[in-house]
Amino acid sequence: MSHTMEKKALFIHDHPFIKDKATGLLYTSGNLNSVLWERYLKHFDSVTVMGRCKTEEDVSRYHPAEREKVTFNLFTDVSGGADYFKKRKKIEKQLIAEIKKHDVIIMRFPATISVFAAEYCIKKNIKYVGEVVGCSWDANWNYGGLAPKIMSPYSYLKMKKAVKHASAAIYVTEAFLQNRYPTSASIIAHASNVIIPEVEAEALPKRIFKIDHSQSSDIIKLGIIGNIAVRYKGYDVLLKAVSALPARVREQIRLDFVGGGDPTYLKGLIDHYQVEKQTTIRGKLKAGKEIFDFLDNLDLYVHPSKQEGLPRVVIEAMSRACPILASSVAGTPELLPIDFLHRPGDAKKLCQDILRVTQDTALRKKMAATNFERSNKYVFSVLERRREEFFKEVKEVF
């Protein structure tokens, strides 16, 4: 009886997991949840996850991160920023110990911990997989504050080197990140890390019906989804654009912000642009039905972000046949027609786009159909097949 060797995978990223103070169980605010590990467990016998960890008392808004065959070895006292460098020796020691115990090393970028791991692997000639989900230059430059801006060129070059030397690389974009972070890997693939189930055929006819039955005097519902404390999401651009609309249109607008995070920064902006009457901060909605219902209710989804890989929520909105306006950042032009994009930070163009789209029923129907059609490329089954091929090859080669 042939017994195949057990293969153990190590997954490395900066992601801050959240530990429940009462139970000690781990949760996540992002998509590194218990379901995601399936992606690797299909190919490898076990997965060890390395990231950061902070303890909180209320974990009700988060998703469980743990599952069978997944072990966590997290950095509990690394808070990001300069901390990575102050504690680099300690981080590297913990990383190296785990790298030595595993057969397949998977690093997600951008991430400082992943860069440290890559530097060690390059030095020791150890193969590794690079998952490229965003741009480190954009992430640092748009983070807010001077220190991250100063770090941008450094972190960009470090990530560039790490991706170049990977033995296998998988990107979330079709071209944008590939051009910015080329690789000499022998195994290369691209698959967005979006998880939309099969696209519901009903979404388009429902949307067309909604548009056909709208009156020019109706309230116009705009929405945006993202962590409301994060400055690079472009909330300032959106609020500036809304405040510059002609009074008649501005009075019809209702703008909903959905997402977790501290609302202080956003409230300050709403105040500054004097759009209190137009805006509501809705807090977090659960992925899946709650988000889809929210999107179905909107007339227009707006995504003015200044930094992205491939924006997941834009693809979700496309799958609900939403008319969408967005910034032209990163991989977004791979998703939407150029007419409906503005340069990051260009509130004037966004204002003109909102005006044009909200006043033109035929245009909204055309946008709905185009977006819905394009979202089919990002259905889970299609992307999952590509990922499976990729990791199957990794398993054979590593």
From TrEMBL:
It comes from the Bacteria. GO terms for molecular function: glycosyltransferase activity. InterPro entries: Glyco_trans_1. Residues 230-370 form the Glycosyl transferase family domain. Pfam families: Glycos_transf_1. Keywords: Transferase. This is Glycosyltransferase family 4 protein. It comes from Sphingobacterium phlebotomi.
